[in-house]
Amino acid sequence: MYKKDKYLGYCFIAPWLLGFLVLTLYPFVVSFVYSFTDYDMFKMQFAGLQNYIDIFTKDKIFMGSLGKTLLYTAVSVPLKLLVALLVAMMLNKLKRGRAVYYTIFYLPSILGSSVALAVLWKYVFKKDGLLNLLLGAVGISGANWLGDPNLVLYVMMLLPLWQMGAPMVLFLAALKNVPVDLTEAARIDGARPFQVFKSITLPMISPIIFFNAIMQTIEIIQIFTPAYLITKGGPVKQTYLYSLYLYDTAFRDLRIGYASALSWILFAVIITFTLVFFALSKKWVYYGDEK
Amino acid sequence: MRKRGLAVLMAAVLGTTLAACGNTPDSKTTKAPENTVKTTEERTTEDGNDKTSEAGGQEGELSLRFSWWGGDARHEATLKAIEVYEKANPGIKIEPEYSSFSGYYEKLVTQLASGNAPDIFQVDQGWVAELYARGDAFADFSDYKDSIDLAQIPESMMTDYCTIDGQVMVLPFGYNGTVFLYNKTLLADWCDAEGNLEVKTWDDFLEIGKALHEKDPESYMTTAVTDGYLRYILKPMLEQITGKIDVQDDFTLGFGPEELAKAYDSFMKIFTEQVSQPYEEAVLYDSMQNNPLWLNGKIGGIFLFFSNIDTEIAGLDYDYGVTAMPMFQDAKVSGQECCPSLMVAINKNIDGAHKKAAAEFLDWFINSEEASLILGTVRGVPGSASALEALEKNGMLSDLMSQGIKISNDTLSLKNGAYELNASVKAVFVEYMEKVIYGVSSPEDAAQGMTEDLESVLAELGKK
């Protein structure tokens, strides 16, 4: 009986397993091999560490692109988590109609690959877009949000906020699990709402904050769609995020080996961030089993 | 036994899942019904003999995959032409695979590398040399002289753009040249009694532009998209200064940093003297048809390929004229791009029967009167003499387009270099052009940096 169940289990995970092997594990391994080659999709030559050496010594775009991406991540992730938490707290307070708001806030997250959102963003923030039209109606002359090199990256940082559905759901679940006896006891002792939030709610949901922070960092550091669809990396490379640089190197310049090396460097950056997060988590994440 | 049963079940589950991930009939890139599709890879394993009955879904049917990019007008006209051809040739099935330009090159390169490229595919002139050098992707049209009439393509176009190492690798669908399309209504003060605009030099151009903007601060002499500023203004200025192609076929540059800095100085005047719509505003529109200033008749004129004239003025109620590119006083060549607009190739890695059928189809598609009348100018002014004649005879070329062709033909220009429009080369041009426009780099620094970067990109391309 157990054996039968085991096979049935494999059967159920087979589609995922095949997808994982073919679409994730295989490219993962192969890209590592490619990163040591000079490969243009047609011919391949072993290049040793040359790609990595060139990236750190000769590449004029690499540092700028990585820097922009890290800045984008450093601003977008906390902002997204903050909005997700605020919305979750509001929903948590709702007595009626929670499901409707829940659906409305989650909806943008399921719009495929955020393409629709990126296109929408372009129409909102264009010089003659919706935002400037609204600002114009109240007598304010709006900026050229997407054309001004000093503004464009910050405008794009707001885009992921629309897709805060996933962290919001997790926050909501975490907020529901905050023990009511603790918050009530604190209130009886005279704690103000902010003190309750700071000293009870935040520590109780800290594992979810930690989880969301890691997941969102991994997601946003690899963000591609907005830069590709809205600005193509411009103006003056101000939105030339790392994934777009990687894509151009691979498919426009046909330097697959070099692009693979770039992708492994990004992987190393992500791993480093994750390890740092884990190391720091001991100081602020509360699992309830601490002494 | 039980294990085998489970294995069968798993296979069925996988099959269903994968099938569900496949293209739906509604997806943008259309595919023919599954029973008629046979991949190129499968065909190449055949022995090259005419086993056409196996290639199609029906007995005796040979199917050809044909990919192109374009807009709705091109898609509709091409699909209609395919329908007519299939009706006249019951044994042939053409499977259309069409999309927009975005991502087409990336997809084509991947298909070529994986041996799954279409039998017939549209290519841009700027890709030909690189795809030939890297992928050896093109069949030689001269092997199919009996099936396709190559004499209809002008000899100079054949030599300059279609032939590599003595083999005819691509054929032009259409050809193009750069002209200045101007709004006679807006520029009435500067036109003569017949409505002709006199802009022989860049100084004339700047002068009119300044006066126009002073008269009406909302109006500008010109505007463009990023590609337009590069290909229709900056690069022509550079070629007018040097008298040479910017990127030579031997992977060297036709200019030095001083000449490039000089071109940047002249180029920047169109922005500093408010002759052009500000760059940061203009480039937010994908095309002129989305630019409100152009639609509202507030732009004096635009540089464009003569094939696009009718598209750009569609639905607009102004009076237009065409004139040649302005030039510097002492310039010898105009710097206009006069070249095939879109090209077509037959996949080298398919069997002889498919190649022959592809050549026969293209002969009809490119040269015949019947196809020309269906296709009109959706792929530019036809490169084939017989097709052009058919359009002229039937009054299908507008007056403005005919004038544009004449002006462009009468203007002395250099051929496009094989790597001039290469994607990596163009990316460097755009990067530094923007640095100068946004004031991130001085013309001199940008000229130095761009020259160095281009040399390194060309060295990389030259290795292949």
TrEMBL record, chain A:
<feature type="transmembrane region" description="Helical">
    <location>
        <begin position="261"/>
        <end position="281"/>
    </location>
</feature>
<feature type="transmembrane region" description="Helical">
    <location>
        <begin position="7"/>
        <end position="34"/>
    </location>
</feature>
<dbReference type="InterPro" id="IPR035906">
    <property type="entry name" value="MetI-like_sf"/>
</dbReference>
<keyword id="KW-0472">Membrane</keyword>
<feature type="domain" description="ABC transmembrane type-1">
    <location>
        <begin position="66"/>
        <end position="277"/>
    </location>
</feature>
<keyword id="KW-1003">Cell membrane</keyword>
<dbReference type="GO" id="GO:0005886">
    <property type="term" value="C:plasma membrane"/>
</dbReference>
<keyword id="KW-1133">Transmembrane helix</keyword>
<dbReference type="InterPro" id="IPR051393">
    <property type="entry name" value="ABC_transporter_permease"/>
</dbReference>
<feature type="transmembrane region" description="Helical">
    <location>
        <begin position="196"/>
        <end position="215"/>
    </location>
</feature>
<dbReference type="Pfam" id="PF00528">
    <property type="entry name" value="BPD_transp_1"/>
</dbReference>
<keyword id="KW-0812">Transmembrane</keyword>
<feature type="transmembrane region" description="Helical">
    <location>
        <begin position="70"/>
        <end position="91"/>
    </location>
</feature>
<dbReference type="InterPro" id="IPR000515">
    <property type="entry name" value="MetI-like"/>
</dbReference>
<keyword id="KW-0813">Transport</keyword>
<dbReference type="GO" id="GO:0055085">
    <property type="term" value="P:transmembrane transport"/>
</dbReference>
<protein>
    <submittedName>
        <fullName>Carbohydrate ABC transporter membrane protein 1 (CUT1 family)</fullName>
    </submittedName>
</protein>
<comment type="similarity">
    <text>Belongs to the binding-protein-dependent transport system permease family.</text>
</comment>
<feature type="transmembrane region" description="Helical">
    <location>
        <begin position="151"/>
        <end position="175"/>
    </location>
</feature>
<feature type="transmembrane region" description="Helical">
    <location>
        <begin position="103"/>
        <end position="124"/>
    </location>
</feature>
TrEMBL record, chain B:
<dbReference type="Pfam" id="PF01547">
    <property type="entry name" value="SBP_bac_1"/>
</dbReference>
<feature type="region of interest" description="Disordered">
    <location>
        <begin position="21"/>
        <end position="57"/>
    </location>
</feature>
<dbReference type="InterPro" id="IPR006059">
    <property type="entry name" value="SBP"/>
</dbReference>
<feature type="compositionally biased region" description="Polar residues">
    <location>
        <begin position="24"/>
        <end position="38"/>
    </location>
</feature>
<feature type="compositionally biased region" description="Basic and acidic residues">
    <location>
        <begin position="39"/>
        <end position="53"/>
    </location>
</feature>
<feature type="signal peptide">
    <location>
        <begin position="1"/>
        <end position="19"/>
    </location>
</feature>
<dbReference type="InterPro" id="IPR050490">
    <property type="entry name" value="Bact_solute-bd_prot1"/>
</dbReference>
<protein>
    <submittedName>
        <fullName>Oligogalacturonide transport system substrate-binding protein</fullName>
    </submittedName>
</protein>
<keyword id="KW-0732">Signal</keyword>
